[in-house]
Amino acid sequence: MQSAYTVLILLMLVGVSRLIGRLIPLPLPLVQIGAGALLAWPSLGLHVALDPELFLFLFLPPLLFSDGWRMPKRELWRLRGPILTLAVGLVLFTVVGAGYFIHWLLPSIPLPVAFALAAVLSPTDAVAVSAIARDRLPAPLMHMLQGEALMNDASGLVTFKFALAAAITGVFSLAGASLAFVLVAVGGLLVGVALSWLMGRLRAWMIARGWDDPATHVVFMLLLPFAAYVLAERLGASGILSAVAAGMMQSWLDLLPRQTGTRLLNRSVWALLEFAFNGLIFLLLGLQLPDIIKAVTSHETTLWPTLFYRCLDVVAIFLVLLVLRFVWVQSIWRVSGLVRRWRGKGELTLVPTARSCWLLTFGGVRGAVTLAGVLSVPLLLSAGVEFPERDLLIFIAAGVILLSLIAACIALPMLLRGIEKSPDDKRRNEVREAWRKTAEAAIHALEVEEPSVAPDAAQAALATEVKARLMSEYRHQLEVFNDSAEAQALAFEMDLLERRLRLKAYRAQRLELYRLSRHHQIGDDVLREVLGELDLAEANLGLGK
Question: Which of 477, 381, 464 is nearest to 435 (CA)?
Fold first, then answer.
């Protein structure tokens, strides 16, 4: 029962931290870390023992799957060059540069272990950046950070596992590791795509037979990232890349017909799951802080001098990571601009100014994946032999996460000062064109619609009236998305009036529904069904309360 109470307390804290985050000007991850540290205070004394392998298995697959699902694929492809240099090139650059520096700074950490630590410090967290920047980052920069976070989660953790294997076995071959890296990566991608495709075929087969219950399909998709991860690991491929590939593939398969209810439920469930898992990871970091500090200073005679020097080590490692990232971003961006001009392709989408380079540099916030990875370091190197400096590795990773969050909280608002988020006219035009085209298609389909059986005069009149009513709604959509400014203004004014009246009508319906329930004129099942329809209709207006 104690474990169940602990889980319930943590979930309650995740929700409460979101409310606190609205009241104080701090990003949510910092609030959650602080809440966890407060809960671990000796007077409260909440302690959570973590199994490294279980922690990695429970948290990483669904988070990586969700990242792959959410990533805008078109922007990922358009910015594939900068994203790949950040997600692959920068990871390797960081592993080599920071790895040698960590080994030089702390000789007690063997070189392969230092490389493993540098690798696990490479993944970034775009969700934390978005919370800090409050959607004020220019769209190309945000897309680059999202793409980098998605790809370097995989590249960083795969590199981390190779370095960890070298530390455990004591054997490392660059040629062999490079070939194995490619095989493991490609194998993981293929497993994820294949399993996701099979899941899509299974769902299509179920839908064709009328088995389209949304809850069943959502449960299958909740199990998919874990299945992709486990299957890939059993086959000797990368479970991390498999989970990412499954998420990216599933975003295409999510467009199956007769799945409106499933999509609505699925988005809500995954939004809840992602929020809860991210929050739990940062809460667990806060809960582990006292134990991490105690473990890293347990072998020393003095507490505060040792802790002070360890904190200086963390600051030095963080500054090196920051410098390496800035040097890489500045160099690669300049080289990319030169190559594009040499090939006659013009300038980059975003001009590489010093401010944009610093935004990308401080935007490399470390977060949940780094913590999950470092906590997966095994307790033992071999039978009876402890893993070298495991507590120190966790202390450094936790310190870098905290410093990167604090640095971003200070630097990003300063760098974004004076930058007004420009409206995304291209996206707005695409939305308008999509609505116009779909309205035209709907009107055309209604115009050419033929009844399946010959109706009598009354049915024909009724069909004509219903078609006219529907076509009137679609013609109103065409007026809303007309190119004429005057037509748009009139249509939007009518639309706002209609929304206000519809909202008033929906709320009157809801009050009447409550009255009927209070007077026992309808049952609870009818109340839930009708209330659900009204809530969905009101939510579609964008004014639901």
Answer: 477
Axis crossing angle, helix 260-297 with helix 390-415, rounded to the nearest 10: 120
d(CA 273, CA 130): 18
Q: In degrees, to the nearest 5, what angle opens at C-alpha 351 toward C-alphas 349 and 353?
A: 150
Dist CA 84 CA 166 (whole Å): 25
pLDDT in tens, 524-542: 777 777 777 777 777 777 5
Confidence of residue 544 (pLDDT cuts 50, 70, 90): very low
Nearest-angstrom CA–CA distance, 32 and 397:
17
Beta bridge partners of 386: 380
Per-position DSSP letters for 398-467, written without gaps between them: HHHHHHHHHHHHHHHHHHTTT------HHHHHHHHHHHHHHHHHHHHHHHS---SS---HHHHHHHHHHH
Residue for token digits 């610093």?
Answer: 358
User: What single letter denotes the amino acid at residue 131?
Assistant: A
Residue 103 and residue 114 in contact, taking contact as beta carbons nearer than 8 Å: yes
- Residue 297 gets the label, from left (phi > 0), alpha (psi -120 to 50) or beta, of alpha
Spatial distance between the Cα atoms of 279 and 12, rounded to a whole number of angstroms: 10
pLDDT class for 422, splitting at 50, 70, 90? low
- Residue 88 neighbours by CB under 8 Å, 6+ apart: 151, 152, 155
Integer Cα distance of 21 and 15 in angstroms: 10
Rounded Cα distance, 123 and 191, in Å: 22
Q: How far is CA 219 from CA 212, 232, 240, in A?
A: 12, 20, 21
Report d(CA 121, CA 400) in Å as an integer.
Answer: 8
The distance from CA 166 to its chain's CA centroid, rounded to whole angstroms, is 30
From the centroid of its chain, how far is CA 234?
26
In angstroms, the CA 408 to CA 414 distance is 10
The residue type at 215: A
Residue 354: other Cβ atoms inside 10 A: 10
* Half-sphere exposure (Cβ direction) of 544: Cα atoms closer than 13 Å: 13
**Rounded CA separation 174/178 (Å):** 6
Element (H, E) at 175: helix 174-208
